[in-house]
Structure formats: structure tokens, C-alpha cells
């Protein structure tokens, strides 16, 4: 069906609910869904080297390394390199501080 041209302009017909559902979700609906999906995902992990983690906590690297080993704080130890997840470090140190 071709649109009817009148002196005022093309014939604007109203879309039915069937036409709207055939097109799928609107851009706004897709954006909202995308935002909800992003918020539902966990935050990206921030990894620090051993020295960076020690500076973050405010202690020397040997002191932090001793604490990591004594309290079995999860971290990656690859040869001489250490990688520590900031969120895990914060949680574990908070737990250790509460315990006294």
C-alpha cells in the first residue's frame, strides 16, 4: 500500500499494536534492558601487584605478604609476582580488624 499524498503531506496512518509488536522493543526499552543487565553483572576485578597493595593498605610489602600467608587471604602468586584483588583484600582486612 503506497501512502496517499495530499496537499497537506503524506497520509499518516496510526500504527496498530500488532505493528508495534512486530517491530520488537523500542530503543528506550533496549537501552533500559541493557542498563539493567550491566548493573546485574559484578564489577570488574581490580588487581594490584604486591607492592601496590602494600601501598594501598599503608604497610610494607613484607608485612602485607606475611599477613596474606598467615590469614590465607586469596591472591595469585605467580613465581615472584603477586596479584591481589582489591575487593577481597578490603574484605579480609576488615574481617581481621574486627576479630582483633
Task: Write structural notes for this entry.
- The protein is of the alpha+beta class and 100 residues long.
- The protein contains 5 helices and 5 strands, in the order ββααβααββα.
- The strands form 2 sheets. A 3-stranded antiparallel beta sheet has the order 3-5-4. A two-stranded antiparallel sheet has the order 1-2.
- Helix 3 packs across helix 4.
- The longest helix is centred in the middle third of the chain and has 14 residues.
- The protein is elongated, with a radius of gyration of 29 Å.
- The protein starts with a strand and ends with a helix.
- The mean pLDDT is 80.
Summarize the structure.
The chain is of the alpha+beta class and 100 residues long. It is 53% helix and 15% strand. The mean pLDDT is 80.
β-sheet strand percentage: 15-25%
Give the overall average pLDDT: 80
Largest sheet: 3 strands, antiparallel
Distance between the termini: 79 Å
Q: Structural class, from helix and strand content?
A: alpha+beta
The general outline is: elongated
Rg result: 29 Å
Unreliable runs: none
- H/E element order: EEHHEHHEEH
Please estimate the helix content: 40-55%
Strand order of the largest sheet: 3-5-4
Helix segment count?
5
In total, the number of strands is 5
Helices and strands, with pairings:
Elements: E1 5-6, E2 9-10, H1 17-23, H2 27-40, E3 47-49, H3 50-57, H4 61-70, E4 76-78, E5 81-85, H5 86-99
Helix pairs in contact: 3-4
Amino acid at each position: 500500500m503506497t501512502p496517499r499524498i495530499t496537499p497537506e503531506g503524506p497520509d499518516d496512518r496510526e500504527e496498530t499494536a500488532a505493528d508495534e509488536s512486530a517491530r520488537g522493543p523500542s530503543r528506550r526499552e533496549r537501552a533500559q534492558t541493557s542498563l539493567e543487565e550491566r548493573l546485574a553483572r559484578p564489577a570488574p576485578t581490580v588487581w594490584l601487584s604486591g607492592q601496590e597493595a602494600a601501598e594501598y593498605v599503608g604497610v610494607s610489602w613484607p608485612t602485607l605478604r606475611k599477613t596474606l600467608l598467615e590469614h590465607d587471604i586469596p591472591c595469585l602468586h605467580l613465581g615472584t609476582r603477586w596479584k591481589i584483588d582489591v575487593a577481597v583484600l578490603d574484605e579480609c582486612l576488615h574481617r581481621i580488624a574486627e576479630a582483633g
